[in-house]
Amino acid sequence: MKSFQVLIGVTSLAVLLAACAEQDDQTTDEQPAEEVVVDDESQPEQDAEIDGMNEEEIEEESAENESEPESEEEVQTVEEDPVETETEEQPYQEEQVEDAYTLTSTRTQATDEHPLSLFTIAFERVEDDTSLEERLKQSLTEGDTTSNQVLEELDELTIEGQTASLIFTEDVQITLASTEQLQFQEMLFELSALYGINQLDFFVEDEQGVSFGETGELDGLEVEKVGTRGYFVVTDNDVEGSTYVSGAYTELEYYNDEVESLDFADAVEHMRAVEEENVLYTSGIPDSIEIDSAELNDGVAEIHFTQTEDTEWTEEQIEDFEHVLQLTALDYEAEELILVNETERARTVFSFSN
Q: Where is the signal peptide (predicted)?
């Protein structure tokens, strides 16, 4: 009986030990799963969000995530590495020339060596408030080369629109020989046109009409120009400073001589067309200057040019260059001329409104 009790005790102890061993094995097998849960606490929340979304919402969020930069570092890299662009050009230095201009005419003397007598013009900008009427009257009276100085009796000159009225005293006597009358009219027309006048009316005090040379009684004259072909620098003259001559009064040959006038761009181009042996006039555009473009639109003449690297301008050359181009622009009834020096990035606007 006693032996039976001992056997039961041993059996119970063996069962108990086996149960404890099995419990230890289960604890060891479950340990890795517990470590994953502790390290990723946000996973249940994300799983819950995904479970609560339908397929369309999941696709939209996926597309948004693909379009967004992966990190702030990537955004910064894009900003710091822009697409390469051309070097920006320097801005132009602007200059506005609004001083009034004045014109003075002379005529070269014909000689056996140079039988061509040239009607020449001097151009100047003045820093005063002289009116257009005063400047035109002065230009006409100083340009009068008639033997009896017809315009000495010019008492007053008024301008309305593009019409100038020349008012003489009672003592006026416009008695001219044929050649002298032609030269006198040439002076009247050329100077008046450059001041923007297209009609000249004559008065003796309050009564319109004068006795005008071989023409007889004359109320007025419509301003007629020979043509527009640019201007050149006169080299053979006895006056101080530079004077200029219209291409219409030179012996230059043009590729389209069948027309009376060239267009503005052609006139500028052909202002270089002077033979080296010519001693009466020369081009006002130096060989070191390249005209890139010349155009006239809505009363605005614009010329772009470049200089060669070895360009050295004297003040006289700069003045002649600007003057022949201003006279040419005036010949085409421009209200302003814009000269753009692409080499020096300089833009100069010459106004003719004063």
A: 1-21
* Band (219; pLDDT cuts 50, 70, 90): very high
* Cβ-contact 269, 225 below 8 angstroms: no
Mean pLDDT computed over every residue of the chain: 78
**Residues of the chain with pLDDT > 70: what percent?**
71
CA 95 to chain centre: 12
Query: How buried is 192 (Cβ within 10 angstroms: 0-12 exposed, 13-18 middle, 19+ buried)?
Result: buried
Q: In angstroms, what CA-CA distances link 13 with 3, 10, 85, 350?
A: 16, 5, 90, 121
How far is 66 from 77, CA to CA, in rounded Å? 18
Of 101, 99, 124, 96, the closest CA to residue 347 belongs to: 96
Average pLDDT of span 144-164: 93
Band of the pLDDT at 211, cuts 50, 70, 90? confident
